[in-house]
Write a structure and sequence with these properties.
Order of helices and strands: EHEEEHEHEHHHHHEEHEEEHEHH
Number of domains: 1
Number of helices: 12
Number of strands: 12
Mean pLDDT: 84
Radius of gyration: 37 Å
Helix content: 25-40%
Structural class: alpha+beta
Family: Belongs to the peptidase S11 family.
CATH topology: Beta-lactamase
Protein name: Peptidase S11 D-alanyl-D-alanine carboxypeptidase A N-terminal domain-containing protein
Keywords: Cell shape, Cell wall biogenesis/degradation, Hydrolase, Membrane, Peptidoglycan synthesis, Signal, Transmembrane, Transmembrane helix
Oligomer: single chain
CATH architecture: 3-Layer(aba) Sandwich
Low-confidence stretches: 1-25, 310-351, 358-365
GO biological process, one term: regulation of cell shape
GO molecular function: serine-type D-Ala-D-Ala carboxypeptidase activity
CATH class: Alpha Beta
Largest sheet: 8 strands, antiparallel
Shape: globular
Length: 365
């Protein structure tokens, strides 16, 4: 395994974007080699194709093996690739058949949009298609509002990121629009993609090429922005993104011969589609033949809810049982017994008084 350092200019750009240098942990998530800010590739094989991306990861989706990487934990602006985390978070939380009336705020989101109106004509399923196919920032906000609001959705997204151990990721928007403090990494995007591929609805949204989308009076067609869906053999999809500050970013996954390769890139200065295809080709050729340079870690286990222990008082733990209820026949028999006892007691008392009176008469004599 060998390491190639990134140019100083690229390193300074990374630091500037992330608001300062981030100290790498002693053992980074995924393995020691992934702490490098340069190229990390296996020995004994041809190096991965060159890429203008500041950061990338090539990984085997089944095994989680990282086959090669470049600055994998560099914290960068994710742009719309963050929508993969939005979808992964909200798909399990929202009913696909629910009808949504987007707010004016959602419909007026800046940047890429699918063209929402404020009419109740959209299903949640439609909004997820708009999110992952057309990269609709308006759809991202409408889904966040449906989930209980922006603040709750961001909490949910960041909680999912932590559970995935995507510790370089901080979500400040559901759309990926640039915000101070928002970040992710090529490694984290690979974790998110791998988790998303395990969800059938997530796979359906990212692999759909075209779909009908509701309009106030009819439908119109939307198409997937992932160009490799039409060009690359076995392409499943996932998500691309771009802003002027983040530049180009992309998450891609493809399957050949029953095996899936994930490629993520961040901060690419230009046209990246051909480079991603070359990185995917290299991944398919290398999988199973090289010593991995790292590992996509598994999510943390979901902790069961903590149940509050209630200590009962002795009286509460050993309640006094009321006497059993008597049925009609039992009540009648009991009444007879009581009555007999009363009568018998009265006769006995009368005999005793008679005997006492006789004794008194004899004593007076």
């Amino acid at each position: 395994m060998w390491t190639k350092l990134v140019p100083a200019a690229a390193l300074l750009t990374t630091v500037a974007l992330t608001g300062g240098a981030h100290a790498a942990p002693a053992t980074p998530i995924g393995g020691e080699s992934l702490s490098s800010r340069g190229l990390v590739a296996p020995d004994g094989v041809k190096a991965p194709p060159k890429s203008k991306a500041t950061s990338y990861v090539i990984a085997d989706a089944e095994t989680g093996q990282v086959l090669a990487a470049k600055n994998p934990h560099g914290r960068l602006l994710p742009a719309s690739t963050l929508k993969a985390l939005t979808a992964l978070t909200l798909i399990p939380l929202l009913d696909k058949k629910l009808t949504v009336r987007p707010s004016r705020n959602a419909a007026n989101q800046e940047g890429s949009a699918v063209g929402l109106t404020t009419k109740p004509i959209y299903k949640v399923d439609d909004l997820f298609k708009a999110l992952m196919m057309s990269s609709g920032n308006d759809a991202a906000m409408a889904l966040a509002e449906t989930n209980g609001g922006l603040a709750k959705t961001l909490r949910d997204m960041n909680a999912v990121a932590k559970r995935l151990q995507a510790n370089d990721t901080v979500a400040k928007t559901p759309s990926g629009l640039d915000q101070p403090g928002q970040s992710s990494s090529a490694y984290d995007l690979a974790l998110i993609a791998r988790a998303g591929l395990a969800n059938p609805d997530f796979r359906r949204y990212i692999s759909t090429k075209t779909a009908k989308f509701p309009a106030p009076k009819n439908y119109y067609e939307i198409s997937n922005h992932n160009k490799l869906l039409w060009r690359y053999k076995g392409m499943i999809g996932v998500k691309n993104g771009w802003t002027s500050k983040a530049q180009g970013s992309f998450i891609g996954a493809a399957t050949r011969d029953g095996h899936t390769i994930i490629v993520t890139i961040m901060r690419h200065e230009g046209y990246f589609w051909d480079e991603v295809a070359d990185l995917l080709d290299w991944g398919f050729a290398a999988r199973g033949k090289v010593t991995p340079v790292g590992q996509l870690v598994d999510p943390l286990p979901v902790k069961p809810p903590v149940q509050r222990q209630v200590t009962a008082s002795p009286a509460a733990s050993s309640p006094v049982k009321p006497p059993p209820m008597l049925d009609a026949s039992q009540r009648t028999d009991t009444s007879r017994l009581v009555g007999s006892a009363v009568v018998g007691g009265g006769l006995l008392l009368g005999v005793m008084w008679l005997w006492y009176g006789i004794r008194r008469k004899r004593s007076r004599r």
